[in-house]
Amino acid sequence: MMTTYLLTLASLLLVCLLVGMVRVLRGPTVEDRMLTAQLFGTVGVAILVLLSFVSQSFSLLNVALILALLAPLSLLAFVQLVEVKDESA
To answer: Of 22, 38, 65, 75, which has fewest CB within 10 angstroms of its CB?
Structure first.
């Protein structure tokens, strides 16, 4: 019963990713696309955590932790890039 519940949650998170993909393709600004990339990182971590509990493969938790640590770094790199572009314009 619990496995079905967790897999249903993972499926709903995948639907969330699909909706985010629409935003990436149609997003009017670069900032919208970056926020969607952050959504991908957050949802990816959530899916990995759910799947690690379902499959009893706790090495997926390590992958989720690494992804959770790398996501803010990509945001910082994006902010740095936008600031450099604004200063040069």
So the answer is: 22
Question: 28: buried, middle or exposed (CB in 10 Å: 19+, 13-18, 0-12)?
Answer: exposed
For residues 64 and 48, the answer to whether their CB atoms sit within 8 Å is yes
Label residues 39-75 b or e (16+ Cβ within 10 Å = b).
bbbbbbbbbbbbbbebeeeeebeebbeebbeebeeee
> Which pLDDT does position 46 carry in this prediction?
92
Q: Taking a C-beta distance cutoff of 8 angstroms, is the pair 50, 10 a contact?
A: yes
Q: What is the pLDDT of residues 14-62, one digit of tens each?
A: 999 998 888 888 878 888 888 888 888 899 899 899 889 888 888 999 9
